[in-house]
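S2.1 Query sequence (5-oxoprolinase subunit PxpB)
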Amino acid sequence: MKKYPITIKPFGERAILVEWPNQVEESILQDILGFTTAFEELGISGWELVPAYNSVTMIYNLATLDFDQIKQTVLDCYSKRNEVESQKERFLWKLPVCYDKEFGIDIEETAQKLELSVEQLIQEHTSFEYTVFGIGFLPGFMYLGGLPKTLELPRRDEPRLHVAKGSVGLAGKQTGIYPQDSPGGWNIIGNCPVSIFDASKEEPCFVSVGDKISFQAISRAEYDLHKIEGEVGIYKVEKIDLNA
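Output structure tokens follow.
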């Protein structure tokens, strides 16, 4: 397994930040996930690990930490991890999206800016598998990398005060789904009827960093049906085990 130069620095009294090279690469993300798995297997209580694009925020919930001690533990753990430890459970989730203009409030303008037809935009957006590089901003908001260059577009010049839950957007080199109503500046091209985050569930967000997402275009009628199925708890998101 390739090793990367990592840096470790304090992040307040009860956390440290472990950083990898500042690049958006799936190999770096997999190395990060391999490290988090290896650290969790040490069985040290009190730690919460938050992986992202090229870093892991390590939060200690029990007391003020000894930085020098944990730094050495992290370095030892990183140097001793192996291929088996990196095989964290990962899934490909297939999520339905309705690109109807009622939901895709920016889809025509976005297509025009990208010099595509609306149909071509939808075809491009549903033709790729996206990697979950991070979850944040809002609980359950997935930062999805792997967007084709043909769909790269800057954020809107003027963010909206209200973006509807389930809105699917484009911004820069990323795509994503708003897990709840919120302000936002992404270019909205559709809506997903599946709730990505539900605080009432034991596992509020079913997606994890390192998983993959693919989008499937659905009609307005299918959207309405899946929305009802989700509300009554009978909709099952299709998933594929990537480690099988």
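The longest strand covers residues 91-98. Residues 26-40 form the longest helix (15 residues).
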